Amino acid sequence: MPHEPSEPIARRYYVSGMVQGVGYRYFVQRAAGWLGVAGYVKNLRDGRVEVYSIGPAAALASLRAALERGPAGASVDGVSEEDAPIEPRFAHHFSIEFD
Asked: What is the domain-level CATH number for residue 75?
């Protein structure tokens, strides 16, 4: 069933490339704030960055475009995306998480 334009959905993105140690997580947190997207960003042990996001589909599409660009100093090789369940504890803010 298609989502209503403003109905929140959740997506998980995995960003590969030179995306750790270059301010990428802070860039994502700022972009999510501008777009009104909730969720989190964190570094993964394999060198990728995971971004879990909750928001309207259009906002998540804009966030994905920002993830593909990245901040100056980052080099994004790819962004994979998958549907995710909405996790209520992340639904009201966007944070930088640490393992």
From this structure: 3.30.70.100
